[in-house]
Design brief:
The complex is a heterodimer of chains A (252) and B (285). By secondary structure, chain A is an all-alpha fold. Helices cover 84% and strands 0% of the residues of chain A. Classes of the chains: A mainly alpha (252), B alpha/beta (285). Chains A and B meet through helix 6, helix 7 and helix 10 of A and strand 7 of B.
């Protein structure tokens, strides 16, 4: 009952907005702003299910591969840097510089070296989205309770066990906070790299439709992009709820 | 009424079979700030030694030196004849602050089982040992909970179980009952005595509470102000079966408490301990 109530509380505004869009756009004669009804109809025609296989799945594979690479790299390198504070201090300015450079600025270089295929796209997604995870992991690992480190030393835990049972679990809430941000960046970079890339992918589909004046198709692509983002976020929240169950319970 | 015997704090004089821990001319200096003076004493195998001293007497520093967590500036500590340079496998520590010494992301059982990983035992064996220790401290029904779901006293029991499961020859406790209420404190004191009698483990407990030190200890080591020195080492002779009410009401207990109190206040052994009687004894607080 309580869950139902909180779900209802979350869903009422989107429903109101969609209905408003439906009603206000009904009978629209504008070429660029067609009615929502016709957009949804087009969405069903184009995307279920040929479009999903042709354009949504490739995008999904790229963003998942790029994001998981970012998580892997961010957590591994972040843990190492967190454990070596002196070394981290030395390369901190470099990290800050690289982080402040918008990742997509490297797109032209990436295209030269990696082409316009999946490899370049996954690389760009990983590169641009890893920063929040990397920096949050460093902070999380460095902020471990000193008493716990004394406990670990006095009970002679190996470094591997310390990382697995103390550093990573302690940093996990911060890592997830960073990863949530990373996922949003990854979605943006996914679309941007698809705009300049080879066929296949939602970003390419949207651009291609616009160029061929298939405005309804373009809008249906944007709708599907929203659906993809929503589903990715939902998946992320499910994983987080499982992994950080203790943390949510403790702070409830 | 017998006057408690004073043991002169001399190191390495008794046989190695009796002494489990030998502290020899131990000193610790931070910069030009001397925390520990020249500390000498031995811990006998199977005894309950309480270290009592005023606040800020470097008790925690001493304990960290004894456990190999920090390196002393001078002198040495030896556990069963082996010089302590890092935390020894035969030693377990119960830290003061249970809320910070337990891992909030692990269940009670996993917290207790975690240190056993260093002994390369199988998982089933680790769980068995952890369960046995949790039963010993009376937490059989709470093993799947997270530590922060338990009361303060129960959390400290988890920390004690963790030390016991490790099967150490000596347990070091750093003001373990300082942050629980009085009733819980008395319960935990009695639990610690029961465990010690049951398992025969050597316990060294650091406290600022004179009553607690006298009540628990076979011998009380009295420390003075910084730079910390050993003021006295007193045999309590209070017997094995102690009770919060009757033991604390005995004239022996009252006299010991007064003596320790005076030694802490003056930083010296009083010239005539016999002159302090129960009626004129100042409160320990």
């Amino acid at each position: 009952m309580k869950r139902l109530k909180s779900f209802a509380w979350e869903i009422w505004l989107p429903i109101v907005l969609i209905i408003a869009w439906l009603v206000l756009s009904a009978g629209s004669k504008s070429f660029y702003f067609p009615s929502l009804g016709s957009i949804l109809q087009k969405t069903q025609e184009v995307w279920f299910f040929n479009g999903i296989v042709e354009n949504l799945l490739p995008s999904l594979v790229r963003i998942l591969a790029g994001f998981l690479l970012a998580v892997l790299f961010g957590v591994v390198v972040g843990t190492l840097l967190g454990l070596l504070p002196r070394f981290e201090g030395a390369i901190r300015p470099l990290l800050e510089f690289l982080r402040s450079t918008p990742g997509v600025a490297l797109l032209p270089i990436a295209v030269i070296f990696l082409g316009i295929g999946d490899g370049m796209k996954i690389f760009m997604i990983a590169l641009a989205s890893m920063w929040p995870i990397l920096l949050n992991t460093i902070d999380g690992v460095r902020s471990v309770e000193p008493v716990l480190l004394d406990v670990a030393r006095s009970y002679r835990l190996t470094l591997a066990d310390r990382i697995r049972f103390i550093y990573i679990p302690h940093a996990a809430p911060q890592i997830f906070a960073g990863a949530r941000l990373s996922l949003a960046i990854a979605a943006v970079v996914m679309v941007v790299t698809e705009l300049i890339g080879s066929p296949g992918g939602i970003g390419y589909f949207i651009l291609d439709s616009q160029r061929s004046f298939k405005i309804l198709d373009m809008w249906s692509g944007i709708v599907m992009l929203g659906v993809l983002g929503f589903l990715l976020n939902l998946g992320f929240r499910l994983v987080e709820a499982r992994v950080l169950a203790w943390h949510h319970l403790k702070n409830a | 009424m017998t006057t408690p015997q004073t043991q002169t704090p001399a190191p390495t004089s008794t046989g190695p079979t009796d002494d489990i821990l030998v502290v020899d001319h131990l000193g610790k200096t931070y910069g030009d700030h001397q925390v520990l003076g020249d500390i000498n004493f031995t811990v006998r195998s199977g005894e309950f030694l309480c270290i009592v001293g005023p606040s800020g007497a470097g008790k925690t520093t001493l304990l960290q030196c004894l456990s190999g967590l920090i390196e002393p500036t001078s002198g040495s500590v030896a556990l069963r004849g082996q010089k302590v340079t890092e935390p020894p496998a035969e030693m377990a520590i119960v830290f003061q602050d249970y809320s910070r010494s337990l891992m909030p992301w692990l269940s009670v059982l996993d917290n207790v089982a975690l240190p056993l990983r260093s002994a390369k035992t199988s998982k089933a064996e680790r769980i068995d040992k952890a369960m046995a220790a949790l039963i010993e401290v009376g937490l059989k029904d709470h093993v799947q909970k997270y530590p922060w779901q338990l009361s303060g006293g129960m959390q400290q029991r988890v920390a004690i179980a963790r030390a016991l499961a490790y099967a150490p020859a000596i347990v070091l406790m750093d003001e373990p009952f300082a942050s629980v209420d009085a009733q819980t404190r008395a319960d935990l004191e009695d639990l610690t005595l029961t465990i010690k009698n049951h398992l025969g483990v050597t316990i060294m407990l650091v406290t600022h509470d004179i009553d607690e030190a006298v009540y628990l200890a076979d011998r009380v080591l009295v420390l003075g102000q910084k730079p910390t020195q050993v003021v006295d080492l007193i045999e309590t002779h209070l017997g094995t079966n102690r009770d919060q009410i009757t033991t604390k009401a005995t004239p022996e207990f009252t006299e010991l408490r007064s003596r320790v109190y005076q030694e802490i206040r003056h930083g010296d052994i009083p010239s005539s301990t016999g002159s302090v009687t129960a009626s004129t004894a100042p409160s320990a607080y």
